[in-house]
Amino acid sequence: MRGALEAWDPVNQKLVWRIDGGGGIGGGTAATAGNLVFQVINDGRFRGVTADKGEILYEVQTGRTGMAPPITYEVDGTQYVAFQGGLGRPAATVGPNDAKIDNPPMMFVFALDGKAALPTPAPPPAPRNNNQPPTAPELQQR
Description:
Blueprint: E1 4-9, E2 14-20, E3 28-31, E4 36-40, E5 45-50, E6 56-61, E7 71-75, E8 78-85, E9 106-111, H1 136-141
């Protein structure tokens, strides 16, 4: 079935649970030893699901499409989930281009015990004057 996240019992070769959402290009999942599956869906949704029952514990719309698979890591006893969303520039773009990006890439990082709301994304930086050479800080950012 397209457009779903499914869990299978490999021993009994049976479907354990299925929830709508997913499929297409982009997104992905990461599972933890703590019975969690993190799913990033190409329409911009991020959610946490129980691995054993498929119960959605958390879901948020990030406002980005073109989602990368999530990763999870721990720092000083806090577990984080991170992924990138946004399309950026077309692959055919050659050389510097300061044109406005409608869906700029953005890195999302969530703490498992975090309580803060997802902030409104900042607008992309203003384009620079293309008649002037880039400054040293601009070169370092590329």
